[in-house]
Structure formats: structure tokens, C-alpha cells
Amino acid sequence: MRNILSFVLLPLIVVMVMMSVHVDLLAHNHDITGNIVSAKCDCGFKTSMALGGGKMNFETVCIFPFYCKDCSSLIELNTFNEKYFCEKCNSENVMCYDNDSLRAHKSDISVFGWNLDRKSYVLKDDFYLCPQCKEFKLKFKSIGFFD
Ligand SMILES: [Zn+2]
Ligand SMILES: [Zn+2]
Known about the structure:
alpha+beta; 4-stranded antiparallel beta sheet; 3-stranded antiparallel beta sheet; 1 helix; 35% strand; elongated; binds zinc ion
């Protein structure tokens, strides 16, 4: 009886493991959609951005917010770019909002995350440096998706 059970159970377990791997792959596929993320501050600063990449371009495009230290702007740059520079003032003095020095470290919950082979980019449910009032009051929020 014990032998019969293992005959039935073992293939069943194998099938279940294979299915969970399959589900993982599907979940990963679903991740290939960009997020619409809003950035809002008490001072009135408000913008929304299409972050990540779509199904057609996710291998070459991953848009993420950056902060330009020279003109104090929130800008959107493709993290695949070899060089980062501000589209407003051409300065290369830009910092990715993924950088720990741009947030207040009040929360570690992710609002938006994008995994690339070489790096992952994450925005937390935290208070970030606002480009307008320059206080740590800027909040990022995921408000939708695009393909
Ligand atoms: Zn700039
Ligand atoms: Zn502000």
C-alpha cells in the first residue's frame, strides 16, 4: 500500500512543482508592463510618469525618475542609457530616485519595482526629496499600468 501511494504521490508532487514554476513564469510575463506612477508633495508639486517599459521595448527601455541637482528637477530617464544627463539643463549631475540619500527611510514597502539583469530599481512608500520645496515630503504612488 505504501508503495502504491508513493507511485501516485511522487508524480503528483512533480506535476505540482512544475505547475508552480509555470505560474512563476506567467507572473514574470505579467511584470512586463509599465506602471503609471504619480509623484505628489504637500507643497503642490504634482506629476505623473510612465515608468518601466512596455512589452515591446522592455529590453532596451526602463524609465525611472531621477533628480537633477543643478536645476532641481524631477526628470525621467532611461536606465539603459550609457550616460545620464538632465533633459532640462543638460547637467550630468543627476541622481536616480532609487538612491538611498533621496529618501527619508520611513518605510520599506515597495510602490514600484523593476528588475533588470544587472540591477533592480525600486520606489518605496516613503518620503522622497521634493524638487520644488526640497523637503523630504514627496510621495510616489502607483496609479495604473500600461503595456
Ligand atoms: Zn537639470
Ligand atoms: Zn514639495
